[in-house]
Amino acid sequence: MTEQETPSFAIEKLYVKDLSLEVPNAPAVFLEQKAPEVSLQLQTGAVKVGDEVFEVTLTVTVTAKIEEKTVFLVEAGQSGLFRIRNVPEESLEPLLAIACPNILFPYARETISESVIRAGFAPVILQPVNFEAMYMARDQEESRDNTAKA
Q: Model-level pTM greater than 0.85?
């Protein structure tokens, strides 16, 4: 295999593409004694933006509520530009859906935590995420959907 044919993967740029923080019930929420319930949603997406260059975005949404009252809602879109060369088609999707989000997650975790602290709350420490399991579950669900349609 020549150097031109050797598969390669490189991070070109990491950046926060989108950041939103809401504290809709301030200042009353700062007087609450109960600990909020925190929920987490993750979403990934990939777009080809140039020759051999893909933008992958990991969107993390954290919502904290006390009963029905929103304490805070923070959403961060952590993105990266990745240059991917000579990777077989069948390996490209798992690379974009597993490897890239694994790289982006620590940055998104820091962005979420820092935003929540700046809003006056204790930091949110996001636990590690198994993007491979998420990818496999989504793949199985799509297979079931395709089978049901046939």
A: yes
